[in-house]
């Protein structure tokens, strides 16, 4: 039989290591807790759940391609211009739109050492090169980023707060970063965890977008709003950026179910405040408990805690993850983020925090 040529994917695509999401724990006889994906332990707002039920009566109808009602709800919540908002299937899709609209082979993006993996993936899809800027004490280093800007730089991605470190930089530092960038470089501010931050010197970046032509801020409904299953995110940007993104956006990229649930969720401030209060209390318990066990958690402003397992303990992060999984608790290993000695643990409810601390205490006692 004669071998025939077959379709070949682009070289840069075949170099991509697919993103691996957090996994559910191994099922055991007792309760289990998925703490690997930074999901809201309270689930979603009752109003959002009812919206999903209501949509089921009209599943034959296409959604509004522009997500007009959702954009207006977001605009009303934050005092924005709805025309400068774009919605996507999670903020991940907005990153993909940015890559399609602005990156080509030979271009460069900059991200930090432990920045979100998806930035690198979308750059690879377009044949662009990812330049890594080192962090300082697991925090975005503005000077390190600016030192790496070249004529090839097209975008700078920072997650603020950062995933997986849980750290943030002040709005003053974000402004300094922007001020040091050429006007043709797009600054992408990924504010997926912004709702959790209580610090007075923090801002998600809305002000910068309103003031300048080369900034976009992205947000998600997957975390505080508990709508991860529906895949919903949004971005706020100058009109010329929004225009470009609409030209590469799929015509019906956000389902009607996601749009209706998003509207209900963003209007349910009581649910948001309840979620925040739970996260504040349990994050403190988790952090203090990890310290009491002799571990080294990184102070976090998000809904997860990164914890280091010192070599001196003789217990590796990988071993701890396997032990927890065998006892019904899944957490996120961090080797892919160049943090092989760390685990990222989502902040859950009181029962899940108790389970993590109890199982880790047993793990550290075993020979």
Automatic annotation (TrEMBL):
Write down the chemical reaction(s) this protein catalyses: L-histidinol phosphate + 2-oxoglutarate = 3-(imidazol-4-yl)-2-oxopropyl phosphate + L-glutamate
Q: Which UniProt keywords apply?
A: Amino-acid biosynthesis, Aminotransferase, Histidine biosynthesis, Pyridoxal phosphate, Transferase
Reply yes or no: does the keyword Repeat apply: no
Give, as one word, the top-level EC class.
transferase
The Aminotransferase class I/classII large domain extends over: 33-360
Assigned EC number: 2.6.1.9
**CDD domains xref list:** AAT_like
Q: Where is this region: Disordered?
A: 21-40
UniProt pathway annotation: Amino-acid biosynthesis; L-histidine biosynthesis; L-histidine from 5-phospho-alpha-D-ribose 1-diphosphate: step 7/9
Highest rank taxon of the organism: Bacteria
Cofactor(s) recorded in Swiss-Prot or TrEMBL: pyridoxal 5'-phosphate
Where is the PTM N6-(pyridoxal phosphate)lysine found along the chain? 223
Report the GO molecular function annotations: histidinol-phosphate transaminase activity
Family assignment?
Belongs to the class-II pyridoxal-phosphate-dependent aminotransferase family. Histidinol-phosphate aminotransferase subfamily.
NCBIfam families, A to Z: hisC
Subunit info here reads: Homodimer.
Protein's name according to its UniProt entry: Histidinol-phosphate aminotransferase
